From TrEMBL:
CDD domains in the record: AdoMet_MTases (cd02440)
Protein name listed in UniProt: Thiol methyltransferase 2
Entry keyword set: Methyltransferase, Phosphoprotein, S-adenosyl-L-methionine, Transferase
Pfam families according to UniProt: TPMT
GO MF: S-adenosylmethionine-dependent methyltransferase activity
Any single biological process term in GO: methylation
Native species: Salix udensis
Length: 176
């Protein structure tokens, strides 16, 4: 299941993105947003988040979306029963999220913060943390710190929802 339509352009964008991120670490992500090299940005909420929200399966209360980027998932989950905090250390991503969501009818139920997930101290713990593209974007040696931070920020009965790239399915298409 490889991307065929526009794959040359997609692959060149991914390659350029990898160069920026590899050269500049955290500043590389900002450069990607500034240059519009965001192949991970779906341009809409993650379908499973829409489904979980619509079926009432997501916990109520406070939710956190680290590395929220354009903020589509933040806006999709926000409602009178769930206040959502979108966190990103990219100034450009944060501005884009605010711009895209400024006229949302549920805007009083979410906020976007330009903060570093690893150093930010939330005023309250969260009932839900949703991670889709954040964990996979950090260096492998930082992943144990990610786990510690999630544990620190999540209420004892809170829920972590994370989506992982289906490596086995992807590899089965390459190596049948």
């Amino acid at each position: 299941m490889l991307i065929e339509e526009g794959s040359v352009q997609f692959n060149s964008e991914v390659h350029r993105m990898q160069q920026l991120v590899g050269d500049e670490t955290s500043g590389g992500w900002e450069s990607c947003w500034e240059q519009g090299l965001t192949p991970w940005d779906l341009g809409h909420p993650t379908p499973i988040i829409l489904h979980l929200h619509q079926t009432g399966a997501l916990p109520k209360g406070r939710a956190l979306v680290p590395g929220c980027g354009s903020g589509y998932d933040v806006v999709a989950m926000a409602c009178s029963e769930r206040y959502v905090v979108g966190l990103d250390f990219s100034h450009t991503a944060n501005e884009k999220a605010v711009e895209l969501s400024s006229s949302s009818p549920n805007s009083s139920y979410f906020t976007f913060l330009k903060e570093d997930f690893f150093t930010w101290q939330p005023p309250e713990l969260f009932d839900l943390i949703f991670d889709y593209t954040f964990f996979c974007a950090i260096e492998p040696e930082m992943r144990s710190r990610w786990a510690c931070r999630v544990q620190e920020m999540l209420k004892p009965d809170g829920e972590l929802v994370t989506l992982m790239f289906p490596v086995l399915i992807f590899l089965s298409h390459i190596f049948p």
